[in-house]
Amino acid sequence: MKQLPDLLLQTPQTIEPCFRIDARLVVFQGDVSDCLEQLPDETIQLIITSPPYNLGKEYENRRDIADYLKTQVPLLKQLYRVLKKEGSLCWQVGNFVEEGEVYPLDIFYYPLFKKQGFKLRNRIIWRFGHGLHASKRLSGRVYHINHLKERSRLEFILRSFYSFRCNPASA
Ligand SMILES: C[S@@+](CC[C@H](N)C(=O)[O-])C[C@H]1O[C@@H](n2cnc3c(N)ncnc32)[C@H](O)[C@@H]1O
Fold first, then answer.
1. Between these two residues, 162 and 137, which has the higher pLDDT value?
2. Ligand 1 pocket member 164 (CB < 6 A)
3. Measured between alpha carbons, how far is 48 from 163 in angstroms, rounded to an integer?
4. Atom 18 in ligand 1: which residue has the minimum CA distance?
5. Is 32 close to ligand 1, i.e. is its CB under 6 Å away?
6. What domains are there in the chain, each with its CATH number?
7. Which of 118-122, 145-149, 164-168 has the highest mean pLDDT?
């Protein structure tokens, strides 16, 4: 097994509740917008997120898809601002479904990403075998992870992930 970088093996002395430039580890509990406001420009190397899909779960208010997407725009602006130029955003979403019509959210997000200046580097398909069964259509068994930004270094991470999880033909 490859050696993990020292940084990953060290236990942080303290966990900070909000951002400090010298903090080793911050765990912010609250609304992501409040967290992002604390961050200086271009400080983050990698953002991995699975935002609400507008399904009406306990943590969200289900709304019209256009309204839902509108609520995400200020967040995308902030994410672009805090991400380093060579950083990456990995945005994992599934489908929004209304009256039997399927809206693949990553397709709807794409123009919003583009407008902020993000560039799509990889469209990763996460295939899984579990979940609720649909009764009137094929059951959704994939999520899409959009990996965005300009000069990303995430390819190196992806390469080791693929060699670990997949056979060379499917990678
Ligand atoms: C689609 S779920 C993610 C599920 C998660 N990836 C998992 O597999 O369990 C969305 C998550 O975002 C959190 N969330 C929703 N709105 C948020 C907000 N404004 N700020 C921070 N987190 C939020 C929810 O509590 C929920 O855990």
1. 137
2. no
3. 20
4. 31
5. yes
6. 42-165 (3.40.50.150)
7. 118-122
Structure confidence by residue, pLDDT tens digits, 81-96: 999 988 999 999 999 9
Ligand 1 near 31 CB (within 6 A): yes
**Single pTM value for the model:** 0.82
The total of other beta-carbon atoms located within 10 Å of residue 129's CB is 6
pLDDT band at residue 12 using 50, 70 and 90 as cut-offs = low
Cβ of 58 closer than 6 Å to ligand 1, yes or no, is: no
Q: What is the Å distance from ligand 1's center to 49 Cα?
A: 8
Q: How far is CA 27 from CA 17, 20, 46, 103, 134, in A?
A: 5, 11, 16, 33, 36
Run of H or E including 123: strand 120-127
